[in-house]
Amino acid sequence: MDTYKQLPNNVNNKLNCSTCHLNEGRVAKAAPYVGMNVVYPKYRSRNAKINTIEDRINGCFQRSMNGQPLPTNSVPMQAIVSYMNFLSQNIKNKNDLQDNTGFVTINKELVPNADNGKTLYVQHCASCHQLDGQGLYPNNTYMFPAIAGSQSFNDGAGMARTYTAAAFIKGNMPLGQEGMLTEQQAVDIAYYFSHLERPIFANKADDWPKGGAPKDVRR
Fold it and tell me: What are the structural domains of the chain?
């Protein structure tokens, strides 16, 4: 919940793990930590390799945190994995997961409308994330995260992809009014804010080396 202050050598923005993994990683459809013990290791087409949970965590540090990976045997890495395992102690196999992982499903055939997305963003999002998307940090204290600009995730992060961001929005936003937006509205908002200026991930050209990249991947 305090990642960027606790790990300043690995986080180059002002986001925390809990920015996306809501309520300490406990919320279904908000990328919960629960069950990661039976999900990983797994093959991921983005790097065309079998990834351990440590690999997946470091992907977040390099993309969502726009920073540097943690050494696998470091105390912070062991702490994060241990916390995931603590939340997952009742999950013995994938049958125990039910439908509590990832995000809600979004129709990826929906065509985003950036102008409508901007209008909806102003109506439903700007009060927390601000008109410029750079979040709210009174007295340098995290209140609402930056979703654009230098303190946000880079363009190699999953949240920089329209349909991934839309799935998060549809299931979890606006905070306290979850589910009020239609899929189309979520897609429009996601396209608008995910294409605002943000850091560039230097190695994104190496992603999906065997092909099959989703159509909303940032280039």
Answer: 3-96 (1.10.760.10), 114-206 (1.10.760.10)
